[in-house]
Amino acid sequence: MEQFIYYLKVSLKSIKRAPLPYALTILILSVGLGVFFANATFYYRLNSDPLPDKSDKLFFPMTLITPYECNNCLPPRVLSYSNVQKLSNSGIPSAQAAMYSSAGYARLTLENLPTPVSLRVTQRDFFEMFEVPILHGTVWSDGSAENQVLVTKATALSLFGRTDVVGESILLDDITFSVIGVLNDWQMLPRLYDANGRNHLSEGADIYLPLETGYDLNYLSNTNSVSYDDTDYRQLATEGRAGALHQLQFWVQLDTPADQQRYQQFMLRLAEDEKSAGRHPAPINNQLVPITEIVDYFGDASGDIEAFALVTLLFLVVCLLNAIHLALNRYLSNQYEFSLRRALGASRSQLQLQMLADVLLMTIFSLAGALLIAYAGVVLMNALLPQNSLFSSWDIALIIALVMAALICSYIVTLYPSLRASFGSLNQQLKE
Amino acid sequence: MITLTNLSKIFRTELIETHALRNVNLQVNEGEFVALTGPSGSGKSTLLNILGTLEGFDEGDYLLDGKSVNGLPDSELSKLRNQKIGFIFQSFNLIKDFSIYDNIELPLRYRGLKAKERKDRIESALELVGLQARRNYLPSQLSGGQQQRVAIARAIAGQPRILLADEPTGNLDSLMARQVMELLEQINKQGCTILMVTHDPDQARRASRNIQIVDGQLHDSTLYEPLASQSA
Question: What is this structure's pTM?
Answer without folding.
Answer: 0.74
